[in-house]
Each structure stands twice: as structure tokens, then as C-alpha cells.
Amino acid sequence: MSDLHDDFGDERSEDAFADDELDTGLLEEELRQAAAILDPVPAELRRIAVDAFALHDLDARVAELTFDSLVDAIPVRGETDPPRMLTFRADDVILDVEVTADGLIGQVLPPGPARIEVLSGPLAHARLTADDMGRFTGEAPPTGPFALRLRTGGDVVVTQWLRA
Questions:
Q1: Can you give the pTM of this predicted structure?
Q2: pLDDT tens column, 6-49
Q3: CB-count exposure of residue 21 (10 Å: 0-12, 13-18, 19+)
Q4: What distance in Å separates the CA atoms of residue 25 and residue 32, rounded to the nearest whole number?
Q5: Are 128 and 118 in contact (CB under 8 A)?
């Protein structure tokens, strides 16, 4: 009888293992469906995630934040809402940006024409153009998290994400 039990025991353990995998797969799918109904991912958050993933560019160099007036500057007495000054650096490319209530003002060094994208949450990307001196302006200030993608010739430089 023990031989009979061993034979059935082996088969049952293999079947039980397969059933456990099947049950786990079904449970996982049911939990995904319940989460999608009861706590769906907001469309804006999904878009931010897609944009952040799209930001990943194998050819892009990441520009490091080397100066932020919120952290590094000495406050000016009497100034209630000073502009935020940011400096990013990626090797020989420097990007100076001033963020004000009216928008962005900046310059790319070394000077030259460039295309700049202001990447921000659920809003469409603002596209700016730097002139021959590397100067650019944007009329709408970024709200929430933002990053800048700079294209000069064949180079692509991306800043880290900051909160406006």
C-alpha cells in the first residue's frame, strides 16, 4: 500500500504544484482587476510615468544641477518673490535658467542655436528655441515637477527633474 501511496503522492504533489501556480495566476489577475476598478491609476500620473520613461535617452547626457538659488543663494532683503536661478552642467555644456512667475529666461553655453523642451507632468511639452547667442525665453513657467531637454547639433542633454 505504501507503493500505491508513493505513486499517488508524487502525482498529487506535482498536480498540487501546478494548481498552486494556476491559483496564484488567477488571484493575481483578480487583484489587478479589483485595483483597476477600485483604485485606478490617474491618467495624469500614467502620462507622467510615460514621459519620464520617454526621457530615458541612451544618447543623452545628464546635466547635473550645480546651482539652485533656493538652496545656494543668500536671500535679498525686501525681495518677496525672487526668481529662481538654476545652473546645470554636462561636461562642456552649461545651461543657466531663471524661473519667474512670467516664465523662463535662459542661456546655453557655449553660445549657439539650440532646441529646448520643458518637460512637465500632464501638460504638453513647451518647445523653446535658443538664438545664436544661446538665449531663450518661455512664456509659461513650469508648474510641478519639470526637466529640460536640450538639443544642440547632435548632442542631447537632459537636466534632472526639479519641482517648480
A1: 0.62
A2: 444 455 555 555 556 667 778 888 888 888 888 888 888 777 77
A3: exposed
A4: 11
A5: yes
